[in-house]
Amino acid sequence: QKFDVNFDDPSVREIVNKQMGEALRLHRCRMHQHYKSLGVDKKGSPPKDIADAPWAEICDWFESEEFKKLSEKNSTNIKEKVINHRGGAKSFAVYYEEDKAKKMERAAAREAAGEVDTPEDVDREEGRIEFYRRMHYNEEKGWISPLAEDNYVKMLELQDTPPVEGKKPMTEDEICVE
């Protein structure tokens, strides 16, 4: 035995679940591509590696109203997307959540090692505005679109705007939503 993996550890479970979820998503995508390529007798033409009974269930799912509504919603969302990012198939939000989780892991590791975060450490942590820049800007190619650059400039302007008297300055989260 090469590895002794503790599947009771929440971080191990999370990693395994993410990997298996991605494998399942890719498998469903391949099955749907095969399904769409078929003519009239879809249930009678399973892929080579799928038995008839599971394929019939997959076909039933693809023909269900629930799947059709979900598929239509996803198609609409993709068509309405105004700005792409450099992250490929993963959504911007997924990248942000993964980055946030990595930051928390690094902080926990520093704390476990007895290290204390200094104000400089906190300042070095990337905020949402810089995360937006990283996901929409490439050092060699520049901005992914003029709109992405305009949004970033507006965020910086809002960040530099002095707060209205008696009000707190806007947080990066509020600026990104704005």
Describe what this molecule looks like in 3D.
The chain has two domains: 71 residues, no CATH class; 86 residues, no CATH class. 63% of the residues lie in helices and 2% in strands. Strand 1 and strand 2 form a beta hairpin. The model has no long low-confidence stretch (mean pLDDT 83).
Describe the structure concisely.
The chain is an all-alpha fold and 178 residues long.
Secondary-structure map with pairings?
Elements: H1 10-37, H2 52-63, H3 65-80, H4 92-112, H5 119-124, H6 128-136, E1 137-138, E2 142-143, H7 146-160, H8 172-177
Supply the key terms.
mainly alpha; 178 residues; 2% strand; extended
Provide the number of structural domains.
2
What ranges have pLDDT less than 50 throughout 5 or more consecutive residues? none
Class derived from helix and strand content: mainly alpha
Number of strands: 2
Can you write the helix and strand succession as a string? Answer: HHHHHHEEHH
The side-by-side strand order for the widest beta sheet comes to 1-2
